[in-house]
Amino acid sequence: MANTEVKLFSIVLLCITVVRGSKTFHQNNEWPTLDAVINDVGGICKTTVETQGYTCEEHKVTTNDGYILSMQRIPVGRSGKKVDKPPVLLQHGIFSDAKTWLGNSPDESLGFILADNGYDVWLANARGTQYSNGHKTLNPNDKAYWDWSWDELASYDLPAFVQYVYNYTGQQRMHYAGHSLGTLMALAALSQGQVLNMLRSSALLCPIAYMNQITSLPVKLAADTFIANDLYWLGISEFNQNGGAGSNFVEDICNKLNLNYSNLMSLVTGPNCCLSSSKTDRSSEPTATKNLIHLSQMIRTGKIAKYDYGDLVQNTMHYGQIFPPLYDMTTIPKEFPLFVSYGGQDMLADVNDVQLLLNDLKDHDKNKLVVLLKENYAHIDFVRAFNAKQMVYDPMMAFFQIN
Ligand SMILES: *[C@@H]1O[C@H](CO)[C@@H](O)[C@H](O)[C@H]1NC(C)=O
Ligand SMILES: *[C@@H]1O[C@H](CO)[C@@H](O)[C@H](O)[C@H]1NC(C)=O
C-alpha cells in the first residue's frame, strides 16, 4: 500500500477513535473487575429501557466456553397488553451492543416497536461488550479472554442466547433479527445446522457474508494494513490508552480536517440518509483484535472461512487441515424463512457482496425468502433511521407474522 494511503488511513482511524471517544481495541487495565460486572446495577434495563417506561428484565447466560453474557428482555409493550406473539431475539453488530436496538425514540427503535406490537423481545450482548465481559475463570485483563473471532460468536454466543430463550419461554421457537455482524453470526450458525430447530425465521439487516467488494475505503485499507503489520494496530491501541498530549494532537488534526463524527461515519459506513436526530450515540464497544483480523481476511480473500492462523501447523492443529474450513451458505435449508434487507448506499454490506450471498440462496424456496433493497439506505440507517419502521420494520413484522 502506498505511503500516503497509510497516512490518510491512520488519520481517519485515529480521528474515529478520538471523536467517538472509543475503546475500539481491547486494552489492558481499564476494565472493571469481574465482581463489578456481575453486579451490574446500571445495566441496559435501568439506563435505556425502563427510562422509556418499559418493563425490563436482566438475564445472564453462560456459553459452553465459559463466557458470561447478558441479555435483556422486554416482556411487554407500553400498553401493558399481554404478549401474543413469539419471542424475537435481536443480535447487534460489531462495536455495539443491545443499545443498537434502543437508540432512537420508542416509536423509531426496533426493540421497542416489537414490544409494542406484541412480541416478547430478547436483546443479546456479545462477548467482550460492556455488559457481557464476564467469564467463569478469565477476566478481560487476560489476553486469553480476547482469543476469539466471529467463529466463536457464531458457535458459542448465538447458540447460548437461542437455547436460553428457548428454555426460558417454555420451548418456544423464536424469530431472529441481526444487524451487520449479527447477520454473519446467524448465517454461519445456520449453515452449520446449529440452532435451526429453535428458530422460526431469521431477518438479516445489512447482511455480512462475502466482504470482498466492500466499498468503504477506510475499512478496505484497514484490512490491508492489518495483514501487513499487526504492530501498527497495536500501536494505535497503546496510543489510545495513553491519551493525554498525543490525543490532543490528533484531535487537533481531526478538527482542522473537519472530520467530525457524522462525516467520519459516512466514510466508514456509507452516506446514511435518514438518521434520527433524536439521539447521537457515540459510544463504541470493544471487540477482539482477532475478530478484526478475521474480518480483514474475508475482505482480502473473498471467502467465508474460519479464522486463518496463517500457518499450516496451527491450522492443522485447530482444523485438521491446512486451510481453514469454509462456511457454505448453500447448505442453509431451502425452506428456512429468511428476510434479507440491504441498502444501496451501504459501504460495508455493499450491494455486490450481498448479491453474492443471494446467488448462494438462489435455490431457496421462493416463498421463504423475502429480499428488500432500500436504495437510499446505508449501514446505520437500518438501526437509526427515523423512517426505518415504515421502510424496514413493518415489512419485517409482516414477514414474521406469516412464518
Ligand atoms: C436448556 O435446557 C437444557 C435441557 O434442560 C439444558 O441442558 C441446557 O443447559 C439449558 N441451556 C440453557 C442455555 O439454559
Ligand atoms: C460535519 O462536517 C461537514 C462538512 O465537512 C458539515 O457539512 C456537517 O454539518 C458537520 N456536521 C456536524 C454535526 O458538525
Describe the structure.
40% of the residues lie in helices and 13% in strands. It has a single domain (3-401), classed as Rossmann fold (3-Layer(aba) Sandwich). α5 (150-168) crosses α6, α7 crosses α8 and α7 (217-228) packs across α11 (289-301). It has helices at residues 3-19, 34-38, 44-49, 110-116, 150-168, 181-191, 217-228, 230-242, 244-256, 261-269, 289-301, 312-319, 351-360, 381-384, 388-401, and strands spanning 57-62, 67-74, 87-91, 120-124, 134-135, 174-179, 199-205, 338-343, 369-374. Strands 1, 2, 3, 4, 5, 6, 7, 8 and 9 form a 9-stranded mixed β-sheet that branches. With 403 residues, the chain is of the alpha/beta class. It contains 15 helices and 9 strands. It binds 2-acetamido-2-deoxy-beta-D-glucopyranose (2 copies). The site of one 2-acetamido-2-deoxy-beta-D-glucopyranose has 5 residues, from α5.
In short:
This protein is of the alpha/beta class and 403 residues long. The chain has 15 helices and nine strands. The chain has helices spanning 3-19, 34-38, 44-49, 110-116, 150-168, 181-191, 217-228, 230-242, 244-256, 261-269, 289-301, 312-319, 351-360, 381-384, 388-401; strands at residues 57-62, 67-74, 87-91, 120-124, 134-135, 174-179, 199-205, 338-343, 369-374.
